[in-house]
Amino acid sequence: MRTKKRYTLILEDGSRLEKIIQVSASPMKYIIAGVIIALFLMFIGAILVGFTPVKNLLPGYLKDSERAATEEHHMRLDSLQQIYETNAAYISNIMSVLNPAITNTDTAAKPSEVSQIDVPFYADSILPTSYEERKFLSMMREREKYNISVIAPLAAESMMFTPVNDESVVTDKTKDAVKAEIILSKGSPVAAIADGRVIAVSQSVREGGGTAVIIQHSKGFLSRCNRLGTLLVEPGDLVTGGQIIALTASGNSRKNEIITIEMWHNGNQLIPYDYLGDKNTSTPRYPIIDEEVGRGRL
């Protein structure tokens, strides 16, 4: 009589030498059990895909609403392509009229490539400026000039601007510049020029490096100090005019330190010396700093 093959699977606790599970069966039973387990897993997977959001993760799967929206977007894209080609053909016609060097065959054949055509420039192809355009530009220039020269000083009359330091000096070459250079000794305190709130602090990689502080003042004024050393304020801090916000850089060198300051009013850049200096005198408003000892002198 031929004996049947049987295989035994044993799950044993090795630390205690105890058998936990022992299964003994023929190969056919193992095959049947594997098929049953595979069918059970497929059944569970079908349930998850059919009745849970997991099906949305399958590649290529779209809901009916999503498929309809995709088709609608494709139709809109086709319509936009037609409109673009129509506009490109219109532009090519205008270009051929304004510039006789371009023929209709250069652009009409492929209107989508109009932007890639190297169009030669001719001065007589530009239409002259109309009277209305010249009048509008003149009006805007006068309005901008009025904003800077009149509105900002009027707004500043009710404000108290203070120097960044009692020993500060604005260099002669920047008295009429929008970026004023101020000479200070090393390690000197730098004060806010008016009441306001610190809105930004950044490390500058230009103009010799250092820290830059931007302060928003009332009545639309904004100031920025650059090339600062040690910072004493943070974004969001409220400061008053004359409050120390930073120190200039310090070192072994006996030379003075130069910081820069800029001012704006409602987006228009101002000349800082008009507000922090006295242009009616030939001498600086504040003492000059001695280049050797770094102390103020009259």
Summary keywords:
298 residues; single chain; 32% helix; eight-stranded antiparallel beta sheet; two-stranded antiparallel sheet; alpha+beta; 5 helices; flat; 14 strands
Layout of secondary structure:
Blueprint: E1 7-13, E2 18-25, H1 27-51, H2 64-98, H3 104-107, H4 131-156, E3 169-170, E4 179-184, E5 189-191, E6 196-203, E7 211-217, E8 221-228, E9 238-239, E10 244-247, E11 257-265, E12 268-270, H5 273-276, E13 288-289, E14 296-297
Antiparallel strand pairs: 1-2, 3-4, 4-11, 5-10, 6-7, 6-9, 7-8, 8-11, 11-12, 13-14
Poorly predicted regions are 104-125, 279-298
Helix amount, in percent? 25-40%
Instruction: Indicate the mean pLDDT.
Output: 75
Strand content: 15-25%
The count of strands amounts to: 14
What is the helix/strand order? Answer: EEHHHHEEEEEEEEEEHEE
Question: How many angstroms does the end-to-end distance come to?
Answer: 127 Å
Structure, explained:
The strands form 4 sheets. Strands 3, 4, 6, 7, 8, 9, 11 and 12 form an 8-stranded antiparallel β-sheet that branches. This protein has 298 residues and is α+β, with helices and mostly antiparallel strands. It has helices at 27-51, 64-98, 104-107, 131-156, 273-276, and strands spanning 7-13, 18-25, 169-170, 179-184, 189-191, 196-203, 211-217, 221-228, 238-239, 244-247, 257-265, 268-270, 288-289, 296-297. The model is unreliable at 104-125 and 279-298 (pLDDT under 50). The protein is flat, with a radius of gyration of 39 Å. The longest helix is centred in the N-terminal third of the chain and has 35 residues, at 64-98. 32% of the residues lie in helices and 24% in strands. The chain starts with 6 loop residues before the first strand and ends with a strand.
